[in-house]
Specification:
The complex is a heterodimer of chains A (about 375) and B (about 625). Chain A is mainly α and about 375 residues long. Chain A has helices at about 15-35, 40-60, 65-70, 70-85, 110-115, 115-125, 135-155, 160-165, 165-175, 180-205, 210-220, 230-245, 270-305, 310-330, 350-370; strands at about 90-95, 95-100, 105-110. The chains are: A mainly alpha (about 375), B alpha+beta (about 625).
Chain lengths: ~375, ~625
């Protein structure tokens, strides 16, 4: 691989993006400590950050076009990992077989990483488009196929939350690939109609489980959630966020909803509630602004991309990240049902932080090659 | 650069950017709503779920006799409780079998208790087994991981060392009922709190109860205590000193115990102020059963038996029983004759005639007493005399007497649920409605305490005892003093309280009138009257026997109730004693000796010099301890 590392121009290295991402993770480590002060998750996260930073630097040194070129290889490796998860090599946690335990490497979550080859595959296929002709049905179907295989495997785990995070990747790529506006409008209308109808049919036929219905009902009326049920988590999260007030409780364990175990999974799924509790409105707004800045920085990188494929990769990551941020925080704020999706850069978890930094490394790589001729 | 490839690519990228910002803005707005607008509300919600107040029950005040001897106290007991906090997380009904087996309690009882906790969400903890043994405590602690909802709690428990003795006066305690909780006087209580349910425990509950303290603790989501933030010590209840003399009480209980039917009541009172010295009602019940037995199958069976028993052990016969007073009624009637000028001191003679004919029906007297004066008619209990006196007064005169002696209302004794007597005043409207008019025969019966006259024992004692003290009818009472209690922490000291004797109702009699009636009463015991056999030389008892018929005249029915109402010494009374023995027969034969037993105990204690060489009733007071 040394051969494909080219001369690079570090003047073009996007330090702001890189430091911003690291800062958010550091802020996250503080919150992970607040969430579970007696556990070692925050220490693990520091190690994860160091590894992730190194990996991001390495990825940034590689020409992204080489990576896109080898996308099918990564894609196949990814699928193999997703299949391995379903074998006895996979680890079962809380009814989900989403983890893979391999010798030397350790335990990780392939569904987090497979997003990268999926994005690369999409970029490779749609990046070759020329001209301004509208997207064809065939092209769309190929895109759907690229997505469908890993999603099917993830749904077998089953991890509906992770599967959901794949959709925005394709949506963004298709949107930027000259799909006709009328199709967008049509599909939006279709979703608005089909989602409630599908939900209704799902409830009637029993395909949608009682606990899933409850997760949705609780959004409408969080105060009266069954404390033994799933809705309770949403309400506890709302209380946790609300009690933060303007400046937060600043790590006071006698008040902490997470230390007193009212809040479930405080270091992963509900890390935003912990942030809100400890740093208050000021901390929340700072974090949201940091995300906004990060996203705008990524989008700027996309605009400067020397080619279409690079632009598509970055924008797909932007779409995926925005979607995850919205789903995760929306859940913590009780406006979306409970879906187990980590908050990018904040939630504890090596797989999540590493895959995000690989993507950032990729963006850095694109940015550094903006004036390279092609 | 990249615009070549797509339809208006920069605009599409800008659209994605705007969508991302809008989504972040939505999140920001929601955070603003939750933290800034509703922040205080959620702060409170969070605090309410992590801070719990665990009550520390206040020990109830003790109840003492007039000499400070303990009649009721509280001692610590270990209870197995169910923490209601946990009910949110588990379904306790699935575990009932385990609880029942481990704690050896009735499964049905557990289900009842758990249902109660569901209905009354205010429960902090629900006792599921009282008086836990070491074995029970060990079992709970060994299963603390499996059943975190079970906890061991120390609570003061009421203890009645004398069991059935004085039970009707003392009463018992129990968990406050949902109905009581709705009343303003119980406003500061929560479900599960202990209150007086009967007797003095109920009447003076406010003073005896005390103020519970609490531990303010930090709990986690499972209700497990993480830290103790504050402890407020409880303020114990105030002690109640009663007017009861335990020695006389034991003597009264002993007399009832050896009576023929073992059913009846004995009351001893100080006629000079209304202090009740003894009040026994038989059959009785054991208050400990209500306190300790409520959670055991045997205890619950026993309580159910108390309620079902046709001898009605839970009835306080002294204040809730209504009996025809029989001849004891002749005393107020005689006074009324004098007051209403139907007779005079100078000429109180009326014909006995061996009876009287009303219409075509002859109602007889027990003997033939010629034309006796009032005192002799009382001494010999001449029915014929009082038939004629009653007719002279008429039913309206009798009703006037009822009002004068306050038979139309409860005496006001400091016990809950006292009944008022029923007299012609009460029955007349009913009789007139049903029979068209009040007939003379009813007047005749009413003048010897039969038919439309049903008096409570306490009201008869109060009325007759007044004859010895210039007609002063004091309000009978049991409270002598409520002791003060010092300040505890934030709770201020509560001052003591002594019973303020209300102005007595005075029966208006001239000295001569009083002397005449008193002479009759004195004669009953001391001048060959109906109760001569209980005479004590040197301690003149004045009294009146009564034999109340329970069956219509001329028919066979349950035996008569025996009455004796008295005070002594006749001309300077210190004590008034009465007895009713149900279905025993003649008052002179059954009730008078029972009263004598109490006088003997009184003399032994207060006038030992009079006891010398006398044939007193056996000292029974120690047998009952």
């Amino acid at each position: 691989m040394i051969g494909i590392i080219e001369r690079r121009n570090f003047k073009e290295f996007d330090w702001l993006l890189f430091i911003l991402a690291i800062s958010i993770v550091c802020f996250g480590i503080w919150q992970i400590y607040n969430a579970q002060p007696t556990e070692n998750y925050w220490q693990k996260q520091i190690i994860g950050l160091i590894i992730a930073v190194l990996v991001a630097l390495i990825v940034s040194l590689i020409d992204y076009r080489t990576l896109i070129h080898f996308a099918p290889v990564f894609y196949v490796i990814g699928l193999v990992l997703l299949i391995l998860v379903l074998t006895p090599l996979g680890v079962r946690v809380k009814g989900q077989q989403a983890w893979l335990k391999l010798p030397l490497i350790g335990q990780f979550q392939p569904s987090e990483f497979v997003k990268i080859p999926v994005v690369l595959m999409l970029a490779r296929y749609f990046g070759e488009r020329k001209g301004i002709q509208p997207l064809t049905l065939k092209e769309t179907l190929v895109g759907v196929a690229i997505l469908a295989v890993p999603i099917s495997l993830i749904l077998l785990e089953p991890d509906a939350g992770q599967a959901l995070t794949y959709f925005p990747l394709l949506a963004v790529v298709i949107f930027l690939s000259a799909i006709r506006i009328r199709w967008i409008v049509l599909s939006l209308v279709a979703v608005l109609i089909l989602a409630p109808v599908g939900f209704y049919i799902g409830v009637k036929t029993g395909k949608i489980k009682q606990y899933q219905i409850e997760r949705i009902n609780v959004i409408l009326d969080p105060e009266n959630a069954d404390p033994r049920g799933y809705g309770y988590h949403t309400f506890q999260s709302i209380i946790t966020v609300g009690q933060g007030g303007v400046t937060g409780i600043k790590g006071d364990t006698e008040k902490s909803q997470s230390a007193l175990k009212f809040l479930p999974e405080p270091h992963t799924d509900f890390i935003f509630a912990v942030t809100a509790e400890n740093t208050g409105f000021l901390g929340c707004v700072s974090l949201l602004l940091a995300y906004a800045l990060l996203l705008s920085r990524l989008i700027m990188g996309a605009k400067f991309s020397p080619d279409r494929a690079g632009m598509l990769v970055i924008m797909a990551f932007v779409g995926g990240m925005t979607f995850q941020i919205f789903i995760n925080i929306g859940m913590a704020l009780g406006i979306l049902p409970v879906i187990g999706v980590p908050l990018p850069l904040m939630s504890a978890g090596l797989s999540s932080i590493l895959s995000t930094f690989i993507a950032i490394g990729f963006v850095l790589s694109v940015r550094m090659r903006r004036f390279v001729n092609y | 650069m990249v615009n070549d490839y797509s339809q208006n690519l920069p605009a599409r990228i800008a659209t994605i950017k705007i969508v991302a910002y809008v989504l972040l803005l939505i999140l920001g707005a929601r955070v603003f709503y939750l933290q800034i607008i509703k922040g205080d509300y959620y702060k409170e919600r969070a605090e309410n779920q992590r801070i719990k107040l665990i009550p520390i029950p206040a020990p109830r005040g003790s109840i003492l006799d007039r000499y400070g001897r303990i009649l009721v106290d509280s001692r610590p007991s270990y209870n197995i409780v169910f923490a209601s906090e946990q009910i949110k997380f588990i379904n306790p009904f699935e575990k009932v079998d385990d609880y029942a087996r481990g704690l050896k309690v009735d499964k049905q009882y557990l289900i009842e208790r758990l249902n109660l906790i569901k209905k009354q969400p205010g429960f902090e903890t629900m006792i599921i087994k009282e008086n836990a043994t070491l074995e029970d405590i060990a079992w709970v602690e060994a299963h603390s991981l499996e059943f975190p909802e079970l906890q061991v709690e120390v609570r003061p428990q009421r203890n009645y060392p004398y069991g059935e003795v004085l039970a009707h006066v003392l009463g018992y305690v129990g968990e406050v009922s949902p109905k009581q909780l709705e009343k303003p006087e119980y406003a500061d209580l929560k479900p599960g709190d202990i209150v007086g349910k009967f007797g003095l425990e109920q009447y003076y509950d406010k003073y005896l109860r005390g103020i519970p303290g609490y531990r303010k603790v930090l709990v986690d989501s499972r209700g497990r205590i993480q830290a103790e933030l504050e402890v407020i010590e409880p303020q114990p209840g105030q002690d109640l000193v009663t007017t009861i003399d335990l020695d006389l009480q034991l003597a009264a209980e002993a007399e009832l115990a050896r009576s023929v039917t073992k059913r009846g009541t004995i009351i001893a009172m100080d006629p000079n102020n209304g202090e009740i010295l003894a009040l026994a009602s038989s059959p009785s019940f054991d208050p400990n059963v209500f306190v300790k037995g409520i959670s055991t199958p045997e205890g619950r069976k026993k309580i159910a038996e108390y309620y079902k028993d046709e001898n009605r052990p839970l009835l306080n016969r002294a204040i809730q029983g209504r009996y025809h007073p029989g001849s004891t009624w002749k005393i107020p009637l005689g006074v009324a004759g004098l007051q209403q000028n139907a007779i005079t001191v100078k000429d109180s003679r009326l014909l006995c005639g061996g009876g009287i004919t009303i219409g075509n029906k002859f109602t007889r007297c027990m003997g033939n007493h010629g034309v006796p004066p009032l005192d002799y008619a009382i001494t010999k209990s001449c029915d014929g005399y009082f038939y004629r006196l009653g007719l002279k007064l008429g039913v309206d005169g009798i009703i006037k007497m009822v009002e004068e002696f306050e038979y139309d209302k409860p005496t006001g004794i400091d016990l809950p649920n006292e009944k008022a007597s029923r007299t012609p005043k009460y029955w007349k409207p009913y009789v007139e409605k049903r029979e068209g008019k009040w007939s003379d025969i009813r007047t005749v019966f009413a003048s010897i305490g039969q038919d439309t006259v049903e008096a409570t024992p306490i009201s008869m004692l109060r009325a007759i005892a007044a004859i010895g003290v210039q007609g002063k009818m004091y309000v009978p009472h049991l409270m002598k003093e409520i002791k003060e209690i010092g300040a505890v922490g934030a709770f201020p000291a509560k001052p003591g309280l002594t019973y303020e004797i209300p102005e007595p109702k005075v029966i208006k009699m001239t000295e001569e009138q009083e002397a005449l009636v008193l002479k009759g009463l004195w004669g009953v015991v001391n001048a060959g009257g109906t109760a001569s056999r209980i005479r004590i030389p040197g301690f003149d008892i004045a009294g009146k026997t009564g034999t109340a018929q329970n069956a219509p005249l001329g028919t066979k029915g349950p035996k008569d109730h025996a009455w004796f109402v008295s005070f002594a010494p006749a001309y300077k009374p210190e004590i008034a004693v009465m007895a009713i023995i149900e279905n025993a027969g003649f008052g002179a034969q059954h009730a008078a000796p029972a009263v004598r037993g109490v006088y003997d105990a009184y003399l032994r204690k207060y006038h030992p010099e009079l006891v010398q060489g006398q044939q007193l009733a056996k000292d029974n007071s120690k047998n009952n301890l």
